[in-house]
Amino acid sequence: MIFNRNRSLSCQELVELVTDYLEGALPRRERRLFEKHLTACDGCTTYLEQIRVTIALTGKLEPSSISPEAEAALLAAFGDWKRT
Amino acid sequence: MTLAVSEQRLVEALRAGDQAAFEQLIRMYQASLLRVARIYVSSRSVAEEVVQETWLGVLNGIGRFEGRSSLKTWIFRILTNTAKTRGVRESRSIPFSALDDPALAGSVVDPTRFLPPDDPVDPGGWAVPPAPLPEQALLARETLGVIEAAIEALPPAQQAVITLRDVEGWSSEEVRNTLEVSETNQRVLLHRARSKVRSALEEYVSEAT
User: In the A/B pair of chains, how many CB contacts fall below 8 A?
Assistant: First the structure.
């Protein structure tokens, strides 16, 4: 993303930088522009909050478990391995 | 690098033939192994075979495991090697086109939600701004199902990155090393994945309320 020195970030540009921002990957100048935009923009503040909520909810997912067939096959293989 | 104590215990237990240790490892990594395998092979069933083969590789190699990397890193390296071999055999020569796709560039939010570039007042500003998500909808059990479905609908590389980072809680460095992607690409994949899941969430909530 190329920043024009003479203007601030638009909302459309900001949403593309959200992950860089959260990952701490924005250069200092862009980070300042990003935060300055947020203080004056409800839409982008809400957007960032939604992304945070998305991350938090994703973290609540249970990793899917192994199928019984696959587990049985693995444990049988384990038995074979143990005998060798 | 030294192994965490719990990992060291698992390694020793596994070497000693402790089935509970093996079951614990399977519980810890099975889901992530499957997601990562899906990047390299064409179908879920082949991915499952790759994961099974990986576990056999873990059993056969644990005696030689020296702890120079973490156990997790070592297991995932067996997986990616197995999956790549399998992917080549399937003549899916996408070593990492899936992870380095230039088409990854582009907007993640529907452009019609913004004012056009020639808008006299606020070019690129919100035309349809997002509304705060109501707490109640977020607490509903279906919401997690919506998120899960949105992740399932992502391309395999994005699925793998968001699963490892946001479901499993891996660090960006661990993901980068396991998937052998640059920091930038990892971030782009994560960005696209999270953005699409957010958008699914927003859509669901606005329909439900």
Answer: 136
